[in-house]
Amino acid sequence: MAVKFMSPEWAQTMTDALNADDGFTKSIANVDLTLAYKVNDGPDGETEYHLAVADGAAAVNLGPAADPDVTITSGHDTAMALQRGELNPQAAFMTGKIKVAGNLAMLMMHQAVLSAFSAVSQDIDIEF
Fold first, then answer.
1. By Cβ atoms counted within 10 A, which residue in 18, 32, 94, 116 is the most buried?
2. By the 8 A CB rule, do 48 and 62 touch?
3. Could you tell me where the DSSP H helices lie in the chain?
4. Tens digits of residue pLDDT in 4-53
């Protein structure tokens, strides 16, 4: 059954899938990172969610992060393309489709986390 993008069910499904995926759990070993996502111009206006990684586990939560290491901002169409795997995060950054603020060195150091997050999200039946 499909889960609506950026809904509570989506956040829980993402959390469960991330923590069950060997590739993702290997990418977050010894990582303490919070990535905040701001999605503009969606059906409900601006929406925020965040990925928190600590102690070998991940959680996707709706709403703003208290103290994110990195904030990624994009339009709704770009966020959907990233979730579907139709757009590479690095290509999105290089073409200005996403804006990144915060600790860029930390983001670069943990590129494997972003790649694994994207790979897991592509396996989830998401309604956009």
1. 18
2. yes
3. 8-20, 22-27, 76-84, 89-94, 104-109, 111-122
4. 988 999 999 999 999 999 989 999 999 999 999 999 987 878 899 999 99
Distant-in-sequence, close-in-space partners of 44: CB < 8 Å, separation ≥ 6:
none
Tokens of 119: 């790979």
DSSP 67: S
Which tokens go with 24? Answer: 């993702």
How many whole angstroms separate alpha carbon 108 and alpha carbon 101? 12
Q: Strand 3-4 vs strand 126-127: parallel, antiparallel, or unpaired?
A: parallel
55 CB burial (10 A radius; 0-12, 13-18, 19+): exposed
Interval 46-84: pLDDT, tens: 899 999 999 999 999 999 999 999 999 999 999 989 888
Distance between CA atoms of 83 and 7, rounded to whole angstroms? 14
- Tell me how far apart the alpha carbons of residues 117 and 111 are, in angstroms, rounded to a whole number: 10
> Which residue is associated with the tokens 């989506």?
10
